[in-house]
Write a structure and sequence with these properties.
This protein is of the alpha/beta class. It has 3 domains: 4-147 and 272-342, FAD/NAD(P)-binding domain; 160-269, FAD/NAD(P)-binding domain, CATH 3.50.50.60; 353-457, Enolase-like, domain 1 (2-Layer Sandwich). It is built from 14 helices and 24 strands. The protein has helices at residues 15-26, 41-46, 48-65, 81-105, 163-167, 183-194, 214-226, 280-283, 318-332, 362-367, 383-388, 416-428, 433-437, 448-457; strands at residues 4-11, 31-35, 109-112, 114-119, 122-127, 130-141, 145-147, 160-161, 175-179, 198-202, 230-232, 235-242, 247-253, 256-262, 264-267, 271-273, 287-288, 291-292, 305-307, 347-349, 354-359, 372-378, 394-400, 406-413. Strands 1, 2, 3, 4, 5, 6 and 19 form a 7-stranded mixed β-sheet that branches. Strands 8-15-9-10-11 form a 5-stranded parallel β-sheet. Helix 7 (214-226) links the parallel strand 10 (198-202) and strand 11. The longest helix is centred in the first third of the chain and has 25 residues, at 81-105. The model has no long low-confidence stretch (mean pLDDT 95).
């Protein structure tokens, strides 16, 4: 079979992959995009989007249970788990179709199949109809990652789940153990706990949400415990004994091992890059701890081969992957794009209350030798938060005392995943505390807390 020639081949159609393909096509490149499972990748089909749809259902359920606080009546409230899952899958399907349409609209040639790179500039795709041989000067690897499974804690889809099983549950857990308190673990813990599941979260580190600012982690722990969750830090699940309809977990804490029974376990202990079967080692592409080693512009050590998104390392975020996709496409097309700066990429966790952050934590800023000014403002001091009935939360800002540079921002509370972008833009524009202080924030809005937190860092807060 004759080889089909392209300017750029993208392997993987997740957020980074399909965006890279579309941007490349916009720049006049002849582009192919290869996907082995689902257009839109894990994020759209099994990650960001369907989880948010499920969390939205639990959020509304949460408000229905509080109807009396708002002067409303809601009797005999309940939920239909199958209908919640069906809605979530429908949202994912709608967006999956949208990605297919966007690729077609931008004249990207799409292939469904398993790709490998037998030689530099060559891609072989095994499809249902046979094998396709493709060639291009530039190849972009965007194959993403999958759930990490630890020995003895492997998922079986019945008693022990990964995120995929947790997104399509056949039953509602009565007593749930979540192993790992990163964004994925905490979001599922929040969803199931809100709908009435007795939920325990185990974290091996000394605090939950370990990548977040310590003050935010502590605040979150208090809120989750108030909601009925059991949080166990500095704790490790050593093994799981599976029985008929139950799992006995051997849990080690402070050097002592105890056992506890659960009917369901969700393992959320990190991710592993999808590097297998691509032929990377033979090509000389360096892989460390299942992730491809790249420079600031996502170039591997082999000319013409790039890696973006989760497979290229932390932070493992869809928006980081998308931006890298744009950057790489522009680079291949002869442009001079700015490198993606990880410290200016926001992280968001969609539990209740929501958590969002960008830049350095207070501890990291001190560690890096900065003299800092720290501002805080609580939700209880904001009129909109009180009116919403969401007065639990805080906004925290960290500045370089010498230059006024915004080093980091950390939030917990209602809708902070939307608010954080204000600080992201501020960091991108190299905003100082003076710029933020002189900005007029609309009233009444939650965003006013962003202003007050900045003012507080300099002893000028008005409303608290």
């Amino acid at each position: 079979m004759a080889s089909q020639d392209f300017d750029m081949i993208v392997i993987g159609a997740g957020p980074g992959g399909y965006v890279a393909a579309i941007r490349g096509a916009q720049l006049g490149l002849k582009v192919a995009c290869v996907e082995r499972e689902h257009m839109g990748g894990i994020c759209l089909n099994w990650g960001c989007i369907p989880t948010k749809a499920m969390l939205r259902s639990s959020e509304i359920y949460h408000y229905m249970a509080r109807a009396k606080e708002y002067g409303l009546t809601a009797e005999k409230i309940g939920y239909d788990l199958d209908a919640v899952v069906k809605r979530s899958r429908g949202v994912a399907k709608q967006l999956n179709s949208g990605v297919t349409h966007l690729l077609k609209k931008n004249k990207v040639t799409a292939f469904m199949g398993e790709a490998s790179i037998p030689a530099k500039g060559k891609v072989t795709v095994k499809t249902d109809k046979g094998t396709e041989e493709l060639s291009a000067k530039s190849i972009v690897i965007a194959t993403g990652a999958r759930a990490r499974e630890l020995p003895g804690l492997e998922a079986d889809g019945d008693l022990v789940w990964t995120y995929k099983h947790a997104l399509t549950p056949k039953r509602m857990p009565k007593k749930l153990l979540v192993i790992g308190s990163g964004a994925i673990g905490i979001e599922f813990a929040s969803f199931y706990n809100t709908l009435g599941t007795d939920t325990t979260v185990v974290e091996v580190m000394d605090r939950i949400l370990p990548v977040e600012d310590e003050e935010i982690s502590k605040f979150a722990k208090k809120q989750f415990e108030k909601q009925g969750m059991t949080i166990r830090e500095k704790t490790m699940v050593k093994k799981l004994d599976r029985g008929q309809g139950k799992v006995t977990a051997h849990i080690e804490q402070n050097g002592k091992t105890t056992t506890e029974e659960f009917d369901t376990v969700i393992s959320a202990v990190g991710i592993v890059g999808n590097t297998e079967g691509l032929g990377l080692e033979k090509l000389g592409v360096k892989v460390e701890k299942t992730h491809v080693v790249v420079d600031r512009h996502c170039r591997t050590g082999v000319e013409g081969i790039y890696a973006i998104g989760d497979i290229a390392g932390a932070p493992w975020l869809a928006h980081k992957a998308s931006h890298e996709g744009v950057m790489v496409a522009e680079l291949i097309a002869g442009g001079h794009p700015h490198a993606v700066e990880p410290s200016s990429i926001a992280g968001c966790t969609y539990c209740h209350p929501q958590i969002a952050s960008v830049g350095l934590t207070e501890a990291k800023a001190k560690e890096q030798g900065y003299q800092i000014k720290v501002g805080r403002f609580p939700f209880i001091g904001n009129g909109k938060a009180i009116a919403l009935g969401e007065s639990e939360g805080m906004v925290k800002t960290i500045f370089d005392a010498k230059t006024g540079e915004l080093l980091g921002a950390h939030m917990i509370g209602a809708e902070v995943t939307e608010l954080i972008q204000g600080y992201v833009v501020g960091r991108q524009l190299e905003t100082t505390e003076e710029d933020l202080m002189n900005t007029v924030f609309p009233h009444p809005t939650l965003s006013e807390m962003m202003h007050e937190s900045v003012l507080d860092a300099y002893g000028r807060a008005i409303h608290f």
